[in-house]
Amino acid sequence: MSIVSIEPATAERWDDLENLFGPTGAYGHCWCTFFRRRAKDHTASTSCERSVRGVDNKEELRRLTLDGKVPGLLAYDEEGPCGWVSVAPRDDFIRLARSRSLRPADPTEPGVWALVCFWLPPRRRRRGLGSRLLDGAVEYARAGGARVLEAYPVDTVGGRAPSAEVYTGTVEMFQRAGFTLSGHHLSERVVARLELKTE
């Protein structure tokens, strides 16, 4: 598999992002808005007919993108868009600040970006694309002036987990990329952090 490029999901690439996520909106009609919206605003797939289709979530991601708020990065190969990673300043992900299991120890720490989600179509998985997207996210955060990139991977030691459970990435892939891993201060989750040296 040859990756041509990893690019910011700008307004001009909205159609690519929409087509990549497809009719299910990536994972369960989320449209990668779970961490960007308050719980009461995020439409779960069990709420109502409108929510089943994830319409509100899609509209939120579309609004953000078309308003110039880059919500993440798209990977492209010779066939078109083939992967996604959500990375942005940590403050953009308002649900992190409210989460019991992922709440930052210091929510006012400056210069922290967060990586909260990967999405790969089933036929693109287990080919190293997630690691390439991670590398692209590191470089994008560094270019954006981030001092630290933070993520919340899942430990899959002892067996594989379903893809929908490892959307935040795996401990192993962040270890390989040089991140420092530690336990969350309030929960059993793992926090991965990489100090970035900006030019």
From TrEMBL:
GO terms for molecular function: acyltransferase activity. Pfam families: Acetyltransf_1 (PF00583). It comes from the Bacteria. Residues 4-197 form the N-acetyltransferase domain. Keywords: Acyltransferase, Transferase. Its EC number is 2.3.1.-. This is GNAT family N-acetyltransferase. It comes from Nocardiopsis tropica.
